[in-house]
Write a structure and sequence with these properties.
Blueprint: H1 4-16, H2 20-32, H3 39-63
Length: 67
């Protein structure tokens, strides 16, 4: 399992680069995914993570008032 301080530092670096969702994916991968997972599995999991983030963002945006 990844060290909390390392994850916080990495998240800040990615967010500074404008990669907020990427930072969430990296943190989740480091904390939850088997380090020996095959590339195909990682690719599918990353796509699902980003799809979930897009769904959440789209849902929030569609609920906001036009003004």
């Amino acid at each position: 399992m990844a060290d909390r301080a390392f994850l916080e530092r990495l998240s800040r670096e990615l967010i500074d680069q404008g990669k907020l969702i990427e930072s969430g994916w990296v943190a989740m991968r480091l904390q939850s995914v088997n380090p020996g997972a095959p590339k195909d599995q990682l690719d599918d999991m990353r796509m699902a993570f980003f799809a979930g983030a897009q769904h959440l963002f789209g849902s929030i945006m569609s609920m906001l008032e036009p003004d």
